[in-house]
Amino acid sequence: MDENSDKVRKLDEFLLDNLELEALSDRLGQFNIFDTLKISKAEIRHSNVLAWLLTPNEAHGMGDLFLRRFIGRAIYNSEINLSKLSPSKVEVMDMRNIEVLREWRNIDVLVKDPDNKWCLLIENKVGSKESAGQLLRYKKIVDSEFPDHEIVPVFLTLNGDQASDKGQQENYISFSHGDVFEILEPLYKRFASQMANSVQTFLDHYIEILRRLTMQDAELEQLCKSIYRKHKEAIDMIVEYSQSVGIKDDIAQALPEVIPIDSISSTANCIYFIPENWKTLLPEIGSDQSERIYGRKSPVVLYFRQSRTKREQLMLRFEVWTWGEVTSRKKLLTNLEKAGFKVWEGAFRDKTKYTRIITHKVTLPKNEDGEVEISETELKKKLSQIWKAFSNDLEKITRCLEDHSWKSDSDESAA
What's the whole-model pTM score? Predict the structure, then answer.
């Protein structure tokens, strides 16, 4: 009884006189037209808004600036050089005859510039997955219809996911709704005073939805952290008794008990780790992103994440990232290919930022409400299962890392 009384007391403290909890409730309870209409994750609605923003003479009052910023960032993110386009060229182009099409030949958004001879092709995904052959089909349609145009194909997802192998072969550029948010918010602040009240309200609501979907609400994040620091025991107890399980955090906690690891870290969606036996194999070279993830630079990454569309599907992935030494990276990819891994041809381009080599999957159990529900013991079994399935690939990858020379391109040339 004493233990139960203490738990009740913790809950009472959490609920009573908690101004921050009330502020959080007020914040989440604010009216938003997209939430009310239950379309905050509806791809068609997001594509409609995107097409509206990309159309220079629409009522948003931002002219062609959103379009210029969007295509400029896409070109900057591209791994290939476009002959007719660059961010600087886009900034000075005359765009008076731009045409924006929705669902033309089933393409989500197509922007045509007949004067400057380019097309922006956007395939937008919010909750659904890329269909087999979809990106290749759309690119061929636009190539065929506009043979004299420079095509800028964009694969837009919540998290900037990489397109399929076929999509990458067609040079689809990864773009996130977070990018859309980062483009739109400052432009909105700049032009809001010139907009009609109805347009301001609409964009206020849309920006709020983008902020939530892309986890960029710093105020909300800080509020939640503050509440958790003050009431950790009560919140942990609520989570313990709740039906849904925080899989990402549970994986991070269980992983060291299943796999010998050197380091582990997490982002909003992924659990990154380096196996213990790779500790002496990997030099501290790599991208700034790998340093943000691990606290040290790394040329390769291993990570767990749940599928966005099938939450019961847990994936283990191995990727080779860029580390500035093009020759060395290509040699590692070649050796991985010789070891039996499929490496798409675009991975050997000088500007390729990362290459996914292998993905293993395991299915997690769901409760009657369709939500992932798994005990700590069962989760450890699932992690062991997927790690065992990965063991043969791990051995081959480890041998490739052991045999690889991490010399710089200049050292190779001098030798």
Answer: 0.52
